[in-house]
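does this look right to u?? iron/sulfur cluster version
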Amino acid sequence: MPYRLDASSLQTLFENLKARGYDLLGPQRKDQAIVYDTLESVEDLPQGWTDEQEAGHYKLKRRDDDAYFGYVVGPRSWKRVFLPPRKRLWTATQKDGQLSLEEEPLPSQPIALIGVRSCEIHAIAIQDRVLLEGPHPDPYYAAMRAQSFIVAVNCTQSAATCFCTSMDTGPGATFGFDLAMTEIMEPEHIFVLEAGSPKGRELLADMDLENATDLQQAHAKAGIEQARQQIKRELPQDGLKDLLYQSFEHTHWDDIASRCLSCANCTMVCPTCFCTEMEDVTDLTGDHAERWQRWDSCFHESFTHVHGGSVRQSTRSRYRQWLTHKLASWLDQFGTTGCVGCGRCITWCPAGIDLTAEVKAFRDSERK
Amino acid sequence: MSDTHKPKLAVWKFASCDGCQLSLLDCEDELLAVAGAVDIAYFPEATRRMDGGPYDLSLVEGSITTPHDAERIQAIRKVSKTLVTIGACATSGGIQALRNFRDVKAFTSLVYAHPAYIDTLAQSTPIAEHVKVDFELRGCPINKAQLVEVISAFLNQRKPLVPHHSVCVECKLKEQVCVMVAHQTPCLGPVTQAGCGALCPGFARGCYGCFGPKESPNTSSIAQQWREMGASEQQILQAFRGINGYSEAFRVESERIEKRLHPSDDPKTP
Ligand code: SF4
Ligand code: SF4
Ligand code: SF4
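got this back:
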């Protein structure tokens, strides 16, 4: 049964989460973008702001209302929480001929993720498969996932770069949350709240909220429907895997490579990309060594470095690997696609390369 | 421990501003450790000691601009077991390599009262064009943490951890907002090698390319992006013709742009 929370009482939800020991993370304005970072109070939310996105283009704009969540996804994704950009794994010290190893302690601070979009929940589920459900679970990832509380926000508007409808990943959240909220401005500014887990139900019970009326629920539904209607980008899935496998030697890869910067921005912003590199460092004396893990990318020459050189020398082969892995071989490897349609790689590509347009180019050339 | 057990370090200077050598002196925290780990045998900027070779590790700053320097670097190579070049001047010719695109004689006659006394080469060239270089550390100036890393790697006989990927990767690892996409500010980060920690984008400015071209730099594509953002051909030309203007990728792109700008001009007139 959905509940209602007055927009003016949003802080009480935050207080309830804090009282349960959670640190809050959520959207806020920084350097002309909306990014996820530590939230102290609702004051930190980008209330009254929205984002305008296109290939290689992002711009914040004022809204003409006071919506708290009237924008979509920005350059940071939640993977920063579970799979941080850089983290130390262990340190080794040599003293008097004795070598000692110290593993980095696992994180113990529970966190609540505020404003997780449906596509992002799907992205987390994909990373769960890779980093949690494989033969070698990542202990840090597992610890953070176990201690996280997810407050989803259903999208009531989409950006021009969104295509969750093609990927069946949004705009409304259907699983993987503790709480889901839909912000409505009419007939009054409230959140329609729903629990998705025992943790969420317990919290809602403690908050002692009124039920949402039928009208309020209808508005919430209409909001999500509006987001769906606004989505114009498409990435049709039928025959996509075969199309990409068959396009292995296609000349269109050269066309993409003439634009692609191999800068790796797309993989850094992608919420499903999980590749990391191990970095070993020593100090000058050689008595102290550390191993770090950091985000890596299939766009790097070093990514496929083996004895004698790099396997993927050309940008053509690297982009082909990225796109084909995301949309085709990921299915064979993990039983799911590697893309959730969030549009980040489209927006944050400095050259404005749009994977939906590139896939269309392959399709169109096939039809000819 | 007596100094004889420690590897002997020498620091050499060619045409440069001294900034990279200063990076070594600027390693406050690490300098004692460096001094403890190596025998600083020749470093005129820091010490009056001038011990003769051979040296285990030579750090070379600056580019080759005179006939005398062209001979000196040969002698230094002969007395150095490992030779590492540091900084944009040593690795790409530096800002003084702008002369390479023009006629240096015309410059000297404009600048000096008695140009006959000037004995300079037509080009400013990186050290690697003259002698075998074991490792090139980029940057203007170099990043002191990378310098300590290179020395650590040398001492511990491992590969230095100096990635060749883009500045964008550092920018994203630091979770900075992209100035190209969000501010419409032209940035060279996508074609520039990491090393600075994406310093300029962190201050809402575009990257100037201080660390030279990254591996597989698509300079034509970034030039096209700059164009679409409203940069003039002249601005794009100047962006590539900066501190690392004579590095191959940046040079080729700037020459391409120059041709667009002045299709019939003789590039050898200043
Ligand atoms: S590939 Fe692009 S659109 Fe798909 S999940 Fe990654 S960033 Fe989002
Ligand atoms: S892709 Fe869909 S779920 Fe994701 S932000 Fe856009 S509208 Fe929301
Ligand atoms: S600001 Fe520059 S360096 Fe940073 S991601 Fe954007 S293009 Fe790359």
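Residues 167-265 of chain B form one domain. idk if thats expected tbh
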